[in-house]
Amino acid sequence: MVVDERWCAELNADEALPGSAPLANTHVFLEHLGPWPASPMEALDLNYAAELDELDASIALVRRPAPFRAARTGIPDSPYVIVSTSGRVAVTRTAGLPSATTLADAIAALTRGELPAGWSYEPWLILVCTHARRDACCARLGRPLVDDLLGVADQDRIWETTHLGGHRFAPTCLALPSQVIYGRVTSDRVAELARAIERGEVVADLMRGRTTYAPALQAAEVVARARLGIRDGSLGLVETKVEGDRTTSTWRSGDASVDVRIEKQEGRERQLSCGKDKLETRPTYVEV
User: Fold this and answer.
1) Is the entire prediction scored with pTM above 0.85?
2) What are phi and psi of 221, to 5 degrees?
3) Assigned domain for 244 exists
4) What stretch of H or E contains 257?
């Protein structure tokens, strides 16, 4: 097979965004100044990585954008640690990497609606994938997105992160605490997106999905928001029914409600990464 030398983000520009976000109810980010390995876990001690694997959380590495981070490499002596779950996001700094028990306790506290001792709530954060070792498009498109965000938003709210999944949708970013992943964020949409995240709103046509929802529900939320014209956090999932490849869900905002039916369909073969030597398929989620 002849590999198409174009960037994967260009090759897959026709692929629908909704339903493409990875699944995670909890996100944990550990500060690492780089260079990042191909997989975040490769930067950690094997035993420590195994302990983190028991947390049932998405684990990734983060760093401040280049103008604001120390000119060092690896894990700093007092790394930032970010945890987001149950609609909340909290940050702390620890002496060395935190134990898995410390992280588990923080996750449990946030789930109960409590602030862990020694942590502080963050109103919102934006984490942009710039993981070049995973795919060239992540850095090629992600770093300009970071620069654009720094021009319109509080620099303390912007982080670079390792892989968010779906580099073919680059530039891609994760908003916290909403846990919504966005894709194909072009320069002309950056100010709009930053304002929406700061206000606790979403920009539906840029949504890949909310990581706490299964793919069909990720797609359904986008449809429901478009039908009801809802950008804020008032939209709630009321009911879900799954029959084979079809998912019917009911969404409500105030007195308004809408039923959405999404069908999982087989996608066409695609070259999912830059320079990848094989074609693969991913399902698509279509309103029916």
Assistant:
1) yes
2) -60, -40
3) no
4) strand 256-265
